[in-house]
Amino acid sequence: MIVPAGRPGPAFYLAGDSFPDDVGVERALAPRLGPHFDGWVGQAALADIPGGFDPAIAARAAQLEAALPEGPALRRVVLIGRSSGARVVTEVACRRPVQAVICLGYPFRRPGGPLEPARFAHLSGLAVPTLILQGTSDAYGTPTAARFHPLSPHIQVQALEADHRLRLAAPDWDAACRLILDFCAHAAAPHDLTG
């Protein structure tokens, strides 16, 4: 199936387990990215769905899937997630062919914990164009460590000078959002999802 080019959107943003403590990430992204999409659905809006904010991965995935449009409109959606929100959006994208996925601080491995394939095994089969922005001092996995996991060829990993909390100065957020917008523009170009 050929996906037509066009303006991306809406964008759906999912925070990490620490929501609302990590709301600063969405506050940095929304004003920089929102105007470039046909709508912005943030974590607070998703949490207002009956059931509220449930940190469980399966519950959040079901909540997100219920909020997504059906039919051709789905292929214009961009999913953005931070930390566990990144895990949710990638799992959903394995089932729902959206236009692009953006991950910030993907939680590859709990600090000091054992490998948990449930965190990353699905990434090997992800067919949606995906950008992972990973902090060089992220305790859940650096960009170098990320490349040792089985990643689909549709996934790109870019380094950010940051930790897992993504405490970035305004110019660094500007640069990160330019990367995201460039990636989404490329993903919006016509491409065949059948091959």
Automatic annotation (TrEMBL):
InterPro entries: AB_hydrolase_fold, KANL3/Tex30_Abhydrolase, NSL3/Tex30
Pfam families: Abhydrolase_11
Superkingdom as given in the UniProt entry: Bacteria
Domain KANL3/Tex30 alpha/beta hydrolase-like: 72-167
Name of the featured protein: KANL3/Tex30 alpha/beta hydrolase-like domain-containing protein
Species the sequence originates in: Falsiroseomonas algicola
